[in-house]
Design a protein that fits this description.
Layout: H1 8-11, E1 27-32, E2 44-45, E3 53-56, E4 64-69, E5 72-80, H2 84-97, E6 108-116, E7 121-124, E8 133-138, E9 141-145, H3 148-155, H4 163-171, E10 189-191, E11 195-199, E12 205-209, H5 221-240, E13 246-249, H6 254-266, E14 272-278, H7 287-294, E15 300-306, H8 333-344, E16 349-352, H9 357-361, H10 367-374, H11 377-390, H12 395-406, H13 410-422, H14 450-466, H15 476-499, E17 504-507, H16 513-520, H17 524-527, H18 535-541, H19 547-551, H20 559-568, H21 570-578, H22 581-584, H23 590-601, H24 608-622
Parallel strand pairs: 13-14, 13-16, 14-15, 16-17
Antiparallel strand pairs: 1-3, 1-9, 2-3, 4-5, 5-6, 6-7, 7-11, 8-9, 8-10, 11-12
Helix pairs in contact: 4-14, 4-24, 5-6, 5-16, 5-18, 10-12, 10-15, 11-12, 13-14, 21-23
Length: 631
């Protein structure tokens, strides 16, 4: 299982000089000690003369940007699109007035790290959480890194997995509160979306939320559409102005296709190379739409990446490469590598994806609870009936679920979760099951050992007791949006790590901070219309994107590929499960998981998302530093 190499710092608290293996990807790390050590082998100082932080490369050009002024140094890690003059000016102003959060308002998305001359270090993760920071303790010292594995090495954690975090990741991904801030490494915490951390020279740590993405009740739909149009256009233009080569996904759906049309309008090097994936034996339904939309303009040159038996899900699992955290997308690694290889044939560059669009602009089922609580019975009846009709469900059942949700406080939902872990659903969660704070645990819950399930139930009970009933928590719908947003950010971060070996730098403009704020500022009830697909995006991009693109209501469905893939790789999956470290750690009962795999092989309903999370965790535990399977 993943284990950082031992270091001098990990074994002797008097010696802060770490001896670390070179990270398996570009990394920034630091051991915040009163007696800073020389940089580890292969690392350089992030700022010359500043001993706290080190950097390993190679980074993409512009992926790490640093500026400094009297009394402070700043690093923006990720996709900071501000010009250097602005960065220097705003840093000087922040030093003078202490308004550091001003520095989080630049275009793009990035992790911000500020070190002041008095030794204080302050970090801000981007609002979506695409660029987190990992941190922990080594003795009295704080360690931190942009990679969890490196933070664990500096802490001397020995790569010990956090079994509760892994179990929750597999069966309760929609309830991040269960293991809030914890990672797959025991003792390593994650600074996630909208969160900030300050470390003083004495080692004191302060953690807070600087960007809660709460809606503004006074925001009008029309104003948000104008803000979203401006933010998306700026996000694309700033990239096309600087990228030597830019490409885009082009699925035929709203998100990636809209971005491709925006990019084609602004690029100085038409036509734009755009890519759609299609598996002839298991079509997802995207190709026809993509071809039709691409025919509308000569400024888009569409390329079709065609799948084969070798690109099906679950093929070539050990070849996905080492993941810093368990990666559910590892099971589609062959498809990702096929797509990236196709894109990279034209040379390195920035590649745009539509990740984040669904999270910000689509309707989570739980928004009906918000409607029931705030918008009145007429709106609830209208939306509930429309959504039930689209999904061929009972309108009465959907509306009753919404009214029940509106009367269920968060602490009660946590208590009910503890009970549901002992009596899970007997089917994978359906749309109606998500008209709740979160869908109740599904049949994959039975994969866990009794001990692991009991541990999660105890965590849920603890969270229930710790939740103040008198507080005004976020609504179920807004909470679901934020959860989906964080998940999208993690998906994009993992895809970016996979793409690095191909010289491709994926960017997701929907995850840019300006775009996220423009969408979340509008109350959810005004953002959603069950009779239209993503009405805010359609209003924002009318005139910039062809109307047929904005009217598409369907999405590609990859379920057929999942079934083809699990049948083809069933023998390998069974063998992997029987020797999985997840069983050794007391997290799963392999025979129960194999029973679910057999159902999938037979074409019956199976919890594929949970299986993908489990296999991603297994790969994380079994891969060595190069991504190869340990013998």
């Amino acid at each position: 299982m993943p284990r950082p190499a031992a270091s001098a710092a990990a074994t002797d608290p008097r010696c802060p000089s770490p001896v670390l293996p070179p990270p398996d990807g570009p990394t920034i790390a630091g051991l915040l000690s009163t007696a800073p050590a020389p940089a580890p082998r292969g690392a350089t100082r992030l700022w010359p003369g500043e001993p706290l932080l080190w950097s390993w490369g190679p980074w993409h050009p512009g992926e790490v940007r640093t500026v400094q002024c009297a009394h402070a140094r700043l690093a923006a890690v990720g996709q900071c699109l501000a010009d250097e003059v602005t960065m220097r000016h705003d840093l000087r102003r922040a030093v003078q007035d202490g308004r550091w959060e001003r520095l989080t308002r630049w275009p793009g998305a990035y992790l911000l790290i500020v070190v002041q001359d008095d030794g204080r270090l302050t970090a801000y993760a981007d609002p979506a959480g695409q660029f987190p920071l990992y941190y922990g303790r080594h003795g009295q010292n704080t360690v931190l890194s942009t990679r969890a594995r490196t933070a664990a090495a500096l802490c001397g954690a020995g790569g010990r997995p956090d079994t509760a975090a892994l179990a929750a990741h597999i069966v309760c991904p929609a309830v991040p509160e269960l293991t809030e801030g914890r990672t797959a490494y025991d003792g390593i915490r994650r600074l996630g979306g909208g969160q900030a951390l300050r470390v003083t020279p004495s080692g004191d740590r302060t953690h807070w939320i600087y960007e809660d993405l709460a809606p503004d009740p006074g925001t009008r739909f029309e104003d948000s559409a104008v803000q979203l149009r401006s933010a998306l256009t700026r996000a694309v233009t700033l990239r096309t102005d600087t990228a030597p080569r830019i490409t885009s996904d082009f699925s035929g759906g709203l998100d990636s296709t809209s971005l491709a049309f925006l990019t084609a309008r602004t690029t100085s090097r038409p036509p734009l190379d755009a890519f759609v994936y299609h598996h002839p034996d298991a079509p997802a339904g995207d190709l026809a739409n993509a071809l039709a939309h691409a025919e509308q303009t000569p400024s888009v040159r569409l390329a079709v990446t065609r799948g084969s038996a070798d690109s099906l899900p679950y093929s070539g699992l050990p070849g996905h490469g080492p993941a810093d955290q368990p990666d559910p997308a590892a099971v589609i690694g062959a498809r990702q590598r096929l797509r990236l290889d196709h894109i990279a044939r034209g040379g390195p560059g920035i590649h745009l994806t539509g990740e984040g669009g669904d999270a910000l602009l689509a309707a989570p089922p739980s928004y009906l609870g918000d409607i029931a609580a705030t918008a009145g019975l007429r709106r609830l009846l209208s939306d509930g009936r429309a959504l039930a009709r689209i999904r061929q469900l009972s309108p009465a059942d959907v509306i009753l679920r919404a009214r029940r949700l509106a009367r269920t406080p968060l602490h009660q939902a946590m208590s009910e979760l503890a009970s549901h872990l002992d009596e899970p659903l007997d089917h994978p969660p359906r749309w109606a099951d998500a008209v709740a704070w979160w869908p109740a645990p599904g049949p994959e819950t039975a994969w866990l050992t009794t001990r692991a399930r009991r541990h999660l139930a105890e965590l849920a009970e603890e969270r229930a007791r710790a939740t103040d009933p008198a507080a005004a928590p976020v609504t179920p719908g807004i909470r679901a949006v934020l959860c989906e947003l964080r998940t999208s950010a993690a998906v994009q971060a993992q895809f970016t790590a996979t793409a690095r070996a191909f010289g491709i730098w994926p960017h997701a403009p929907f995850l840019d901070s300006e775009v996220v704020r423009a969408c979340t500022r509008l109350p959810l009830a005004h953002r959603i219309d069950p009779f239209a697909a993503k009405p805010l995006l359609a209003a924002a991009l009318t005139g910039l994107v062809p109307d047929p693109v904005l009217r598409r209501r369907t999405k590609g469905d990859y379920a057929a590929e999942n079934y083809h893939g699990v049948r083809r790789s069933a023998t390998q999956i069974r063998a992997r499960l029987l020797r999985s470290p997840l069983a050794e750690l007391g997290i799963i009962e392999p025979s129960r998981v194999i029973a679910s795999v057999e159902r999938a092989v037979a074409g019956l309903a199976a919890p594929f998302p949970a299986l993908n999370r489990l296999l991603g965790a297994d790969l994380w535990l079994t891969a060595d530093d190069s991504g190869r399977e340990r013998s």
